[in-house]
């Protein structure tokens, strides 16, 4: 690159392979949820997704280290990351929208409320409540109990809020050139993120083993695991990305003024944290 020319990356196979890997993973997950089989396909898809992530990261890092990127390329990366996070906002907006629709409209209609209260004729003995512990259809068993927000979910909230603080400190340290400080605070962020996933695993076990809260436990169980499960997946992806950033810091890849990869990973992590605040409030508390 010379004379301010714009670097155009060579054709990449990773977007197509990444889409294929995600498709395989989701097909396996869907088959597992609906038919009780498909774990192998889902696992292969997950391995493929992680492999594509690793190889794609590798190529971008190599191009960056070779000095191929200019200011225009940097702006392209920023716009790309911005639009990606916007797409994630819409992703979770759809899930939250489903939750609010069920709670505000569908369940009350079945109890005779609102303009479509005639739906109450389907199950005249149904009484609306949320969390929906007693689904109107007697063929569906609701959960015995809901998850208390003031135990494991509160601990996870503290973990993620703290992780945003430690990540911000790491970012500020990197901007000041304190590489060792940035490394240590980033390690702390990863420990908090992994702690979140471990606690969520315990919560899922408790829900299935003792509370009767499963994917089959009516609309409450479905929305609960849909929202918290996909958020947990995003935390996992964010932790993998931050682990890559940690490796790059240890190798000395970033400078005070040139560390957008770290900044982009920080944007993603903070977004995931904000989504969790919404989950904690509207899935667990209210």
From TrEMBL:
Cite the InterPro entries for this sequence. Answer: Cyt_c/ubiquinol_Oxase_su3, Cyt_c_oxase_su3_dom, Cyt_c_oxidase-like_su3, Cyt_c_oxidase_su3-like_sf, Cyt_c_oxidase_su3_a-hlx
Q: Which Pfam families does the record cross-reference, listed alphabetically?
A: COX3
Q: Per the UniProt record, which EC number(s) apply here?
A: 7.1.1.9
Keywords for this protein: Membrane, Translocase, Transmembrane, Transmembrane helix
Transmembrane segments annotated in the record for this chain: 12-33, 39-58, 79-102, 182-202, 222-246, 267-285
Enzyme class (EC, first level): translocase
> Per the database record, which ranges form the Heme-copper oxidase subunit III family profile domain?
2-286
Bilayer topology annotation: Multi-pass membrane protein
Family assignment from sequence similarity = Belongs to the cytochrome c oxidase subunit 3 family.
Name of this protein: cytochrome-c oxidase
Gene name of this polypeptide: coIII
